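Can you give me the bound-state structure? Components:
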Amino acid sequence: MEDAIRVEGLTKRFGSFTAVDDVSFCVKSGEIFGILGPNGAGKTTTLEIIEGLQRPNQGQVSVLGLDVLRQPAQIKARIGVQLQSSAYYDYLSLREILVLLGSFYPKRLAPDPLLKQVGLLDQATQRVKHLSGGQKQRFTVAASLINDPELVILDEPTTGLDPQARRNLWDLIREIHQRGVTVVLTTHYMEEAEALCQRLAIMDRGRLVAVDTPQNLINRLETTYTVKLVVPAPLTEDQIISLNGGVSSIQTVERNTYLLRLHQAPEALDTVLQTIVGSKIRLDHLEIGPVTLEDVFLELTGNELRD
Amino acid sequence: MLPLTLANLKMMARNRSTTFWALFFPLLLVVVFGLFEFDGFGSASLTVVDEAKTPNSQLLIQSLSELEFLRLQNAGGGESAARAALEKGDLDYLLLIPAGFGEAPSPDPGSTSAGVGLLVNANNVEQNQLVEAAVRHLVAESLSKEGPGDGAESVPPSVSPASLSIESVAVTQVRYFDVVLLGLVGLGIMSNSIISIAVKISTYRSQSILKRMLVTPLPIWKYFAAEIISYLMLAVIQAAIILAVGVFAFGAHVPGNLLWLLVLVILGSIVFLNIGFILSAWANTPSAASGMGNAISLPMMFFAGTFFSTASLPWVLPYLAEALPLTPMLSAMRAVSIDSASLWEVWPQLAVLTGWVVVTGLAAIKFFRFS
Ligand SMILES: Nc1ncnc2c1ncn2[C@@H]1O[C@H](COP(=O)(O)OP(=O)(O)OP(=O)(O)O)[C@@H](O)[C@H]1O
Ligand SMILES: [Mg+2]
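Here's the bound-state model for the whole set.
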């Protein structure tokens, strides 16, 4: 099957600042592909080049087999886009906005079934400003589906939503995917990427750090357990050395917060816990957990992923 | 494009506050200028041609000169010159006192004393009623007072209707209100076109609505065409309402060809929409766009001669005023609608206006940005 998106050597500079730095990846037809990264990683810039909103400085991008620079209109007719921060007309109802947007496309869906699918049929005659945050996001997803696209690109569809609304949106995205639509989305949230995406690109400071399935990314790591320590006062050098003497790597995440990554559980776990007890480290909080994409990100980039 | 134009019009209709303010200010000024009667009583002028030179006529002239709202003007060139002045609108009233005024009528019951003639400017309807009543009263009064020697009872203290004849003269004189009304039409179109498009586009940009349009296959020229068409329709409606209020509520005279006026309204409106697009590119926020729009349209309102002539401005200012887009628009609009000129008679203004359309159009294309 042909790739839905093919990005090769993509670079985008703003003045002397490189927002996207030699990025290459492919999105396969029919998958949910996630781009994960912290603020300023270059996710939106990458998507906007794919959508034809920005021109790259270097590199080739093709969407549905078409070149973004040479056939932007054909691409636009076949993809659906949700922008990171796009409002809609204040003085039109939801239904009217969908009708208007649909009129720009050669092929379009009827607005009401679409509103029904995102659970907004009752609000069809309301204005966007009267919707809740979750409803608004569902509406922008519906708007991106108005032309019955083969590929939808969603830029941070769940940012700012409460857990319930986020889960609703995940269901909606899975539904869209089940109808055979390729989905590309960006997110700050590891658990979202894990729950939703079949493959994942991790970006940091304009660079692509890794592309793989979430499970492969986790399996790639040597770490098998993480131990998080929160202590009342900073650890002394000796204490850090004694902890480091085991099989763990140690990282200061915040003041008084340390993250230990254990490579060979469960023996390493045992060693660490005994060291803590033996060196009389006082604890405010101790957390032992499995490895998550959070740790993948941390290990790959050396930075913690934050909202 | 049609769906977008219709949607734009729908949004304008729903965005009542904007549409309301687009009309409120110009209409308020129409009311102000309509009510205050700047052509009004204080300046009403009267020339008396006295062929009688009797005590009665002297008495009449004396009492007319005491009226506060009439200014007596010397009949320099006699009756014919005074008539000409009246027809040109330089004179408001002409009173003709015939020879034999106030002398006893002949015993024949059918005859009356020679009638006084009052010629009035047909345009000043309300003022005329007042002046006619006053003159009628004073003529009667002056006739009731015979010469000093005669007994007061010999003539009845009323005047027969025939002794004052009124002639209404159609005058193609330009009233200040008519001039200002056309100025207000131009002003309304200018400020609405500049400010509302600048605010709207910068709002759309700050909310990424423009970007949202760009990810659809809609060719971008269609987007602008729809915006411009819907605003042109608003401008035409706005002009029609302001003119209608001026004409029907305040008796303005707009005898010219409305089709030519429509052409000028559309041409001027395109210039101002282009300026609005340029400002929306320079302004980073909607409120900055609104401020810039006001900063441009308020000075232009004065310098383009909306309310008063700019010929007396010092230095090079009158020439600068000529170069503003509103100036040729207003002068052509006035020529076409008040003086009933045809479109080709105002070709210099049309040329300047077309130049503005081209220049602002190119600048709008050059400066416009989507994000
Ligand atoms: N038009 C622009 N001019 C200058 N710098 C820009 C421009 N657009 C983006 N940048 C910079 O490029 C970098 C990447 O921005 P981008 O919006 O792609 O990040 P992102 O990964 O989408 O971040 P977020 O998660 O906050 O949305 C940022 O540092 C941003 O400041
Ligand atoms: Mg972004």
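A couple of observations. Residues A 14, 19, 37, 39-45, 84 surround adenosine-5'-triphosphate (ligand 1) (CB under 6 Å). The radius of gyration of chain A is 23 Å.
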